[in-house]
Amino acid sequence: MRTVHRAAAVLAAVTALALTAACGPAEDDGAAGAGKPTPAGSAAPSATASPSATASPSAPAPASPSASASEDGAGGDGPGDDVFPCGTAVLTFTATLAEPTTGSYLLKVTNKGSRPCRALGHPVVTFGDLDGAATERGEAPGIEDALLLAPGATAYAGLMGGPDDGGPGTTVGSIAMTMETDSDLEQTPLGAPTPGLHVSPDTNSVTPWVDNAEDALSL
Predict the structure, then answer these.
(1) Which residues form the DUF4232 domain (predicted)?
(2) Which fold has domain 88-218?
(3) Residue 35: which H helix or E strand, with range?
(4) 82-127 per-position pLDDT tens digit
């Protein structure tokens, strides 16, 4: 009888141990997953780099055009530059007796300015208080072909007179001169002494501006 009770007790103890093992705490799924090693050869996903913005090439700025125009009224002397007509403000003026027998005078103007100018046409010569001006003698070149006076350069013209033969006219001691400018430019007349110049409606004439004295008196 005692043996039966001991066997029953042993069986009960074994059964209790088996139940305890079966009902033990289950592993936490998340913890188990964290503890598992990463299989060899599998890489962790990396963040995809956002594509960098491609800078648009900036267009080169256009070059600023340089000013080729002259800053003052005298103009330039390069190809295509405007060269303005000479006015009396940039000239010196003299009149020299060239032929005493005929009373002709050599007129001379010199560019005292710092820029070139063009001596257009004929000098405009007047005789003091007398009305009218010397008539034009010979043909002058056009504006584009007019004589170019560089700073310090000289142009010449001939003022043809005539002997005082007792005919109509009078003798003057000076003349005044302005330049053709093909414009309304106001000019201060330049004066020069001309002792004994006989002024007559039929004899006084003036040649166009040229670059030498000989041609000025022979036209």
Answers:
(1) 86-209
(2) Immunoglobulin-like (2.60.40)
(3) helix 29-35
(4) 789 999 999 999 999 998 887 899 999 999 999 999 999 999 999 9
